[in-house]
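Recap for those who missed Tuesday's class. We walked through two folding examples back to back. For each one, the amino acid string is listed first and its predicted structure tokens come directly after. Nothing is annotated here on purpose, so try labeling regions yourself before you check the end of the notes.
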Amino acid sequence: MKFKPTQIRDENLAGRIASMAAEGKLSHTIVIEGGSEKERAAFSRELAAAFVCSSQAGAKPCGVCSHCKKTLAGRHPDVFEIDGGERGKTLKIDALRDVFDKLMYLPNEADARVYIINNAHFLNLSIQNMLLKNLEEPPRYVKFILECATKHALIPTVLSRAAVFYLGIPDSDKKTDETARAVASGIAAAVASEKEYDIVSAAAPLMEKKRELFVACAGELELIFRDAAVAYFGGTDLISSDPDAARRLARHIGGDKLVSLPGIARDLSDACDLSANINLLVALLCSRLRT
């Protein structure tokens, strides 16, 4: 089986990744950004399989050796999946410290130990700094895969030690990022105003647009909403692109609703896998945000 990362929409990048995997030249730390959570999770496992694959000839992952099968099924003893956080909650630092304390352990079956951190955009600054120390000089057999809605949630020093693979369309990366941030900030401000018209108006730029913009905007919104919940409960560790919008939300919206908002953004992002009708998804987003 020839490895073809189907989640990568840039065919040239997909080819380079396949070549690096086959030649054992993948970076020891990889950041996956963009796309839906489901796409990022699937690609993370494929890359993990490439690290532990036992094939001696041809593409990696081969998909047929026991290491590949176990990894893709989520049950390889040397591949560890850690949830960086969900629905406004962040990973506890003690949980990650326990992981790092075991980095020196040798692999059980494969030639590598792979740590997949899902939803890495929820990692707070303390945890990212702890992670950074372990990215600088990891044991040769330790590999990290961080999947996140947007790389901008990670500190520059973490990104500088990683290869970043984007699941969107590369030619419009920068423009999409900028537009997504602007629209997300506008929607967050509208939610704070609690006026239905303001929410619909702020989300209007997403209508009739490409899937990548909606997914990117949902990712930015999820981070702003997460920060709002953190700020509401007295936290100061804000990681989104617009912490001021998050603070405004924290001042105007109740705690119960704030905690639910990150899940709304994530659910609508995941819904892109099931529906190609972006206008319908925008309407659903507005409806759920104003209730």
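Example two. Treat it independently of the first, because the proteins are unrelated.
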Amino acid sequence: MTFVPRWIDQYRIFAPIGAGGMAAVYRAEDTESGEEVAVKILNPVEHPSEADQTEFVHEAAVGELFDHPHLVKVYTHGVDSGTPYMVMELVEGQRLDQRMEAVGKMSEAMTLEIAYQSALGLQEMHRQGMVHADIKPKNILISDDGVVKVFDFGLARSISRNGAPDGDMPEEIVGTPWYLPPERIEHQPEDERSDQYSLGATMFHMLAGRPPIEEGTAGEVALKQARQPLLTIKAYVKGISQPTGDLVTRMLKKEPGKRFASDAELIAALKAAREHVGQSVDLSRSQRRAPSKKRRGWMRGWRK
């Protein structure tokens, strides 16, 4: 059953943008500022559990920490008549997985540009002591004016000074198996290099048209992700440049210590690979295939 509120506190709801799981996102107006925003709510018709509500509030609170052009901004969150909600930046655009579905394999230049902008957003998260922990094509947004933004902070968590996540490590492995860093599967501490692995797996998928490991059940894929040696991207993509091939291979090293040591080092390598390819890339809507009506809107097909 679809729940469409008319108002959430000071926000006038116009139309649904997308829904999935326990939550839904709506285009809305902040009647105090006149600004159009996106309002995400936990759907009361789905009877969200206490754990669902805790995760929702966590996602909102993490998102409010950041104010960066490559991270979707969360302005505020609250509860109205028992319904938890968060208010976000309204971004017109297309998720990366939707772009990949439309075009198939992506060019080397486009892959590098998307990864470069994503890495800038992740660098800001890491600077504030957080790992995203769920980087994948569905959590990367390309706006109509060509700006790449990382979003969905539901699994994000803080990192202590020694590199271990604050609090206990969860016994359950959470995330999408095709992009999980091996250390998550092995219940080892994670840091910014874990997000780097997931971004590398996303780059592999963009270039090859398939994730690094795709055969088997989710559990089998996760286990292979941790223990099975990966073929290099050059085995799947002919003609890829040496800098890009080396970059993706290093990002996907099983041992975090063999990946790039810092965000700055990764970003420098991405920038160097872009310059080596030497092709300018325009990610704006005018340069992409027109999406079907089913895919219009930045959260169309959105999932919790």
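Answers for example two:
Residues 144 and 285 are 5 Å apart (CA to CA).
Confidence is low (pLDDT under 50) at residues 290-304.
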